[in-house]
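Lecture notes, continued. The same structure-token format from the folding unit now serves as the input rather than the output. Read the line below as a description of shape only.
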């Protein structure tokens, strides 16, 4: 199955989240089948990320957005966080600090975009400024309405500078979210995750879904698409996202730089060092 084609939002798509499946098993027989595919994808990602790091010409930005408990953290822990930390950083975006609020909304974001050779993972992102900010009326409509175009221009400038952008929305059903909230309550090791605000956001489910749909429709140019990933099954989410990241890295086709040393000379130096080592024994 081609996950990239299946879940990519096209710029002229009319999105209705409600009518999109959250529970599919896709091509997989069961959980184990999907986990084997994920493991294979992770190996591909690791290999190609290493090449990209050494090549140091292109970069990759992965944006994650989702309702609470949809699995951003799990996806990072089990899949994306398996990349070499020398070339990959995760950036969580929380309620802006007073310093961040004193700047334009992209200021804190721009600082975290990946330099050549590196990967940045955004756990939440600049899209919060057209999601929570819109739903909670944190700024007037006249302000957030302008932001879609600003986001498109910003992302375009990153792409023009050699950054590939993948944006994933983890699509869970309200029933599955409630079930995960229950599991958190039942598990003392997860009590630190409990937050009354999650229930507040849940009451606004419809308004959030509408804000997401608008963002997907307005901000899905070909060079920076959104992918809407069915996420009720964690193993399906991991398999689908890892497949899209692996395929994207293959398409980026990073190359080891050409060898600019004299290999014969290095072999001679090696031989001399080895002879020296033996005569010292
Ligand atoms: P997470 O849910 O990502 O694990 P938190 O529980 O700390 O992390 O939640 C972060 C909170 O920060 C979310 O409620 C999110 O809506 C909020 N947030 C992020 N960016 C902004 C923003 N630009 N303006 C207002 N709130 C924001």
């Amino acid at each position: 199955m081609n996950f990239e084609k299946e879940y990519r939002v096209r710029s002229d798509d009319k999105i209705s989240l409600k009518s999109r499946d959250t529970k599919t098993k896709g091509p997989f027989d069961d959980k184990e089948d999907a986990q084997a595919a994920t493991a294979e994808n992770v190996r591909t990602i690791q290999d190609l990320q290493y090449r990209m790091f050494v090549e140091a010409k292109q970069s990759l930005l992965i944006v994650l957005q989702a309702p609470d408990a949809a699995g951003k953290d799990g996806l990072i822990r089990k899949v994306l966080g398996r990349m070499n930390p020398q070339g990959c950083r995760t950036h969580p975006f929380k309620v802006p600090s007073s310093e961040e609020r004193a700047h334009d909304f992209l200021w804190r974001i721009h600082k975290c975009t990946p330099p050549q050779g590196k990967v940045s993972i955004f756990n939440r992102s600049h899209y919060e400024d057209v999601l929570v900010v819109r739903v909670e009326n944190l700024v007037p409509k006249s302000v957030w309405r302008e932001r879609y175009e600003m986001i498109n221009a910003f992302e375009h400038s990153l792409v023009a500078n050699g950054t590939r952008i993948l944006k994933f929305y983890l699509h869970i059903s309200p029933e599955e979210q409630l079930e995960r909230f229950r599991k958190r309550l039942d598990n003392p090791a997860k009590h630190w995750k409990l937050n009354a605000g999650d229930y507040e956001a849940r009451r606004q489910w419809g308004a959030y879904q509408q804000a997401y749909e608008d963002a997907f429709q307005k901000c899905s140019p070909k060079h920076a698409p959104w992918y809407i990933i069915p996420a009720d099954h964690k193993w399906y989410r991991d398999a689908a996202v890892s497949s899209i990241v692996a395929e994207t890295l293959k398409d980026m086709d990073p190359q080891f730089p050409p060898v600019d040393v004299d290999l014969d000379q290095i072999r001679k130096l090696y031989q001399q060092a080895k002879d020296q080592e033996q005569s010292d024994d």
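Point for the exam: Residues 3-280 form a domain with the Rossmann fold fold (CATH 3.40.50.300).
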